[in-house]
Amino acid sequence: MLPPSPIPASVVVLTRFGGAEVFLVQRSPALRFLPGFWAFPGGSVDPVDRRGAVKEPLALARSAARELFEETGVAVPGLAPGGAREALRRELLAAEPRSERWASLPEDVAWFDAWQPFAEVVTPRFSLRRFRANFFHLELPAGEEPAIVAGELVDGRWVDPAGELARWSRGDLLLAPPALYLLRRMVGRSLGEALELATRSTRAIAEGREVQQAEHAPGVIAIPLATETLPPATTTNAYLLGIERFYVVDPATREPSEQALLFAELEARLARGHRLEGVLVTHHHPDHTGAVEATAQRFGCAVLAHAETFRRTTFEGVERRALVGGERLELGLAPGGAPWTLEVLHTPGHAPGHLAFVESHARSAIVGDLVSTLSTIVIDPEDGDLAQYLESITRVRDHGIGTLFPAHGMPAPAGTALLTRYLDHRRAREAQLVAALSDEPRTAAELVPLVYSDTDRRMWPLAERSLLSGLRKLASEQRAHAAATPDGRTAWRRSHP
Prior knowledge:
By secondary structure, the chain is an alpha+beta fold.
């Protein structure tokens, strides 16, 4: 399965006082993409931006002007003269249809006079909803001042880069990775230097010379790398945990070119004086272990995993260290100077040796395949146990976590809420399975259409594996009974007290 095609979008870095301050907006917690994050104004290109079959650069500039005006009320010169301003903004903020007033704006609006694009950023491959965001810089035009209308956005403010980074480091707010990246480069540099750095870096990523990464919490960097995993995922997130002392979690790709990008990033960290403490493995499945051996051998560090994981893998030529639940690993000092540790949680169910890790500074939880933000997790009856899995989710949910970082998909800032939704979904699916059972024996394949009628038929073979795990759980609770059919298959029916 190929990654989804990125949606064209425009983003505006709005500054004042020559770049001393930048305007950020807070996205609504109800949004699916980056909920609750502080980011730059922007959004996807709309058909109205392409009126007249214009070339892409003009469509992107129109989109940037429209999104900035919708979200902040700031207009480029000539966009909304006189009393038309408020009416135009109200129409743009209305859901549908798109503003006829916008579509009829004159073609001589100064789309390019005030700004120029400086970078293009594509959403990392861990997301099913991806954008090809073109970044524009605009110094606040004279007489303009941003004002947020509640809706998709809930707040907006001018910030100085150093102060906002300090708040983020303390865990006081969520910053979208592009905003975090640019704010860091604005500290101690001119605005022109910061934009030029962004231009060079994004070009290197697009050309495959640098690895794309995303940092959603202090000291937790996600690097999505291609793996042979289950759809809809196409990648597994490797995580770099810590700063001066750090671990790499689940280096999983088998692709030499992808490994080279990961290794280059690790070597860059080491060149800055950071120390790689070891390779952490969440569990033994191939889409989590493809580069574990190569990483440990190249950097001369130990592999740390649960004993059950080591029983199911053959990491050769490396030091092994078995981890147990409750153990704590040292990460040195957290941002702010407090002691920083990584707590090991044994979370069996998806796999017998499955581990999750919770860092002590922001309570970020790296959870492997405990959950995914792309789809539900398959519990295969060969090495999974649904009852254990549900118990593990419950235990992590009650552990007091912040942002949840899965192996597949984007991070979830409300980690506890996501785990609760997972439990609710599993309970609802079990109720469907119980309702599908009757006194008439049915095979698992015959039960799948009854229980997974809401699932793409192409996914039914995987659904059957999870359904078998559910049937085994019900059998252990004496709520289902298995019996052999005359042709040697296994059929299931409900159990009676």
